[in-house]
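As promised in the previous annual report, we have extended the structural survey to additional targets. Below is the entry for Enoyl reductase (ER) domain-containing protein.
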Amino acid sequence: MADDGEEEKNIAAWLLGIKTLKLQPYHLPSLGPQDVKVQIKALGICGSDVHHFKTMRCANFIVKKPMVIGHECAGIIEEVGSEVKSLQVGDRVALEPGISCGRCSHCKNGSYNLCPEMKFFGSPPTNGSLAHKVVHPANLCFKLPDNVSLEEGAMLGYLLAARAFGAPKIAIADVDVQRLSIAKNLGADETIQVSTDIKDVAAEVIKIQNQMGSGIDVSFDCVGFEKTMSTALNATRSGGKVCLIGLAKSEMTISLTPAAAREVDVIGIFRYRNTWPLCLDLLRTGKINVKPLITHRFGFSQKDVEDAFETSAHGGTAIKVMFNL
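The corresponding structure token record, generated without further manual editing, is:
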């Protein structure tokens, strides 16, 4: 464990209860031979962080004891373990937040993001990375290209990724007109304002399909409510795919039979798998520009932490709320 002096230096944002965050000391584990100690310099608030903040849970992951929050982060190497050869003190790195066991069938088959023993920053019961310093395996720390900032290293966006991978036409649906305006500025071909009333799904599906002008091959539900999933299932063409990303609800009541009759596949996606090198390359080459996604920036005082999470939880113009430590 870290000594008392280290504890005094290392402060983290602890989630203590619903909408209750407090800056408190955080003991770091001992530095293993294949670990590095990282000074966290940039951290973005994710939707899952907001769920934990507002409800003390995200899907079936329930916060049962005080937990350091946060996982989308980048920083500077402060110390390296005795066996680390790939990184050195002073390197700027992006941190992949999940530590898998490496032994189970999922890990051995390459689907390590599904590891049942996964220790993931800021997902209970594992402490997160909104702290001055963290200790992390070196093989999960990826050196940033010289032209990629620490803020960029801490984030990516779905719309931009879809465009980078060649999607010819992209439509974004949201309840907030300000968010739609930002999506349009980021390159969305079409934007559709929708309601929160599930009775409006049928009419909104027609509107979405008309604005796309052709069959929708793939839909991404980035929220995870009954209405958003129903909209995605009905809007997607026969033989298309719906990818459920958002985990707002652990249970949903939706009509699957019509989608099944049209052979619409429902795909789950959970956390990350082998994405960091590719994402960093997209940033390095300029194929993706995530800078416009950062709408709010905060420091790392008690007030900053409280204000940042309230800002992100409120939504509105807040897309990506970023801490600069």
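The CA atoms of residues 2 and 28 lie 6 Å apart. Confidence is low (pLDDT under 50) at residues 1-7. These points will be discussed at the next consortium meeting with the crystallography subgroup.
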